[in-house]
Amino acid sequence: MKALLGWLGRTGVLYLALCLAFAFYILVWPRLASEFSSESLRQDTMSVADIRDTIAQERSRLEADLRQREAGIRELGKEQLDTRIAAAREQRADLQRELEEGGGLLDTVRPSRLLAAQRTRLQIAALDAELAALTSAREAKLSEIAVEAADRQFDRYRRIPTDNAVTVSYRLCREAEGRLAEFERLNQVEQQARDIFLRERQQLEDRRDTRCEAARTREARREAGISARERLAEAQRAYAAAQDWTTAALGDTTEGMADTTLRDVLVAAAWALLGILLTPYLIRAFLYYVVAPFAERRRAIRIAVPGAEIGAGSGNRVAAAEQSRASVAITLTPGEELLVRQGFLQSSPAGAELRTRGMLDWKSPLTSLASGMTFLTRVRGPETTTVISADEDPFAEVTAIDLPAGAAMVLQPRALAAVVQPQARPLRIESSWRIFNLNAWLTQQLRFLVFHGPARLVVKGGRGVRVEPVDSGRRFGQDQLAGFSADLSYSVARNETFVPYLLGREPLLRDRVEGGSGVLVLEEAPHAGRRKGVRAGLEGMMDAALKAFGI
Fold first, then answer.
1. Distance from C-alpha of 243 to C-alpha of 249, rounded to nearest angstrom
2. Are 481 and 511 in contact (CB under 8 A)?
3. Which of 25, 100, 279, 452 sits in a 20 to 30 Å window from 86, CA-based?
């Protein structure tokens, strides 16, 4: 049933994927194909410099075309100019509307879109230049019409009275007025007689009116003629100024354009991706060839044990142990006792004395708590045999290490499954800190716990524990170390193989023990049976913290 449901689920997912693929091909792909034409794809490979060069070339062609059309614009009439101006303004409004409409997401960096926008701006600039030329031509045409009107008005005053003629006319007017005044100063009888017989008053008044009216007419004619001449001259000057125009050069529309295109973004992203991909390898190479050799030359860690100097007799040396196995039998001699961790007491003699002991070492309660060496089972009884084996961990194997009197071993309490010690002389555990030693930081262990004999230590490990002589020195993985003889040198060494380390398959440094005839205690598979996922990460962090404190 489970296999059937799995097959139906995979088939359903495949069917859905095929439906989506067909929908994409039918509905979306035609639009994308029209959008990303071959010309568009070619333009999308252009750089900002290519776009600027293309727009500069098109600007030169448009300027040449506008200069060629300049003569034709000068020949157009006012109505034709009005029609052209209206059409150019409408076309410019359409282009401006198209330019201001919201574009796509990549329009600001996609070269083809940038080029299209720059061409639109260039067309708007060309229309502005053409509108300026059409407006100038229209003003010139209006100035020409004004000149013709002023000339027609000036034709009425072609012969402008001179200033002397106006002066003479006013003098004759004043003389006529003087003679009339002289007549009026005569007595009434003489005036009436002259008026009856000669009609002299009427004649004097008519002469005065005629001459004064002629003087005023000449003066008005002169003023009107001068004004018409000035208007004609002004119209001619305006016409000459209006005729003095040329088509303006097109401005640089690429000013303010972004200097980054999609190609630049993709190239930068490619370089960034390459940098991201290569940076770990460059860092690893630097660490391998520079940092690791420097670390190898640093002073090694050596735990000095009083009374157990190098070169002492073999009686105080730790000997190699038997091959680890699923269980080990511990036989007590008179005066000995066995302390067993919870979950490792498989069987015990019926006549043995079993009690509970709170901690392995009451002087180091935190260490005992953190390493799990609490609430131990104490077994006493001479010539009794107790079997030690892991009840819950199927990968754990155990072996017994004999620690004679005067010998000492650096051991992590987490590796202890049981301890055999004399009842009158409990196991002595000392702490040694190495905070100011670089190798301590590199091995991630700042504190070392030293176990002093006489005692027998039953150690455990995933898929087995190997207790082997150091001989000329041994290298091993950092997580494998469970302990080593106290008179040995403990440090780090660079991994022998570079390529596996470069590919992340091997660590940069491996732990190294050398400098004596002691033994090394290694866990075969330290991660066997460990949890995976988030809980494994948390447990790993906790284990690293405990290891730093030698636990």
1. 18
2. yes
3. 100
Q: Report the alpha-carbon distance of residue 411 to residue 430 in Å, rounded.
A: 11
The CA distances from residue 283 to 280, 501, 504, in Å, are 5, 12, 12
Q: Tokens at residue 303, please?
A: 């735990």
* Residue 273: exposure state from Cβ atoms within 10 A (0-12, 13-18, ≥19): exposed
The first and second tokens of residue 59, run together, are 């600007």
The chain-wide mean pLDDT, for the chain, equals 80
8-state DSSP, 220: H
The residue among 454, 452, 422, 429 whose CA lies nearest residue 332 is 422
The helix/strand count (H/E) of the chain reads as 15, 19
- Token digits for 398? 């155990």
Sheet with 465-469: list strands edge to edge.
428-433, 447-452, 408-411, 481-485, 519-523, 465-469
Q: Using CA atoms, how far apart are residues 6 and 336, in angstroms rounded to an integer?
A: 61
CB 463 within 8 A of CB 325: no
- Of the two residues 369 and 282, the one the predictor is more confident about is 282
Place of tokens 């776009």: 51
Predicted pLDDT of residue 339: 92
Whole-number Å distance between alpha carbons of 304 and 524: 28
**Which 3 state secondary structure label does DSSP give 35?**
helix
Angstrom distance (rounded) from CA 429 to CA 361: 8
Compute the radius of gyration of the chain from its Cα atoms.
58
**Alpha-carbon distance values, 321 to 312, 399, 459, 488 (Å):** 20, 7, 11, 18
* pTM of this structure: 0.56
| 340 within 8 A of 388, measured Cβ to Cβ | yes
Beta strands 353-359 and 374-380 are: antiparallel
Q: Which residues make Cβ contacts (< 8 Å) with residue 250, sequence separation at least 6?
A: 59, 62, 63, 122, 125, 126, 129
- Average the pLDDT over 336-359 and give the result: 89
Q: Cα(first)–Cα(last) distance of the chain, in Å? A: 50
Residue 414 DSSP code: G
Residue 10, pLDDT above cutoff 70: no
Burial of 15 (0-12, 13-18, 19+ CB in 10 A): exposed
CA distances from 292 to 284, 419, 482, 494, 503 (A): 10, 38, 23, 6, 17
Residue 503: what are its φ and ψ, rounded to 5°? -85, 0
CA distance 414 to 526: 12
